[in-house]
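thoughts on both lines:
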Amino acid sequence: MRSIVLSLAALLAFAGTVAAQTKTDTSRPPVAKKTPAGAKAPAPAKVTNSSVQKAAAVQQKAAPQAAAPQKRTVTPQQLRASRYGGFAPQLQQELPPPDLDLTSPRSLSLVNFNTKEEITVTYWSNGSYHRDALNQLNHFLRDNHDGGETEMDPLLFDVLWHTTRIVGFGGQIEVLSAFRSPSTNAWLASVSRGVARDSQHMNGNAMDIRFPGVPVFQIRQAARALNMGGVGFYPRSGFVHLDTGPVRYW
């Protein structure tokens, strides 16, 4: 009986030794199998178009989205600048109310752009207007088409004089248009969209002028700073409209 037990113990010990020897050592890297001579190596996996597209799609999804370019907004002033040679941006900031000279004599030197007539008069001094000088200005600023005259508003001459002082202009002012009779104004309105049918020119309180050598936007800016009437801006034609009607700008 004892001999049988010893035999079984020896047999179990032998089987354990064999199992330990056949156990794989995981600490060592696996040895690549050698391809037998004459045998073909396995072909690498093929890269298909679909797999490339899938990879690109994944990469594009993972990449941060590029910021969309911001749309540039164009202000009305910039749009007018592109049309009128850069005048409009200069007008974004208005001049502060000027300190008016209320004591110096007021003289105007004018030239009629159409007839080439010239006049230089001192129409105000010592606190009052001079009747003779106003009569000369009324005749000078008559309707060029039918010769009609009217009593021009003396305040219009003040607006013009103060505007010259603000921009520092001391030369001869070109007058393109002053008084218009109703018939003349109606005719002009029929041939030009820029002429109003109820124009202030018919009231004797409007002039279209320019100061040679002075940019028209500066004349407009100075006249607007006075806040004494209407100011129209016509940069394409190169003149400014002044009147003593309601305060408004265009």
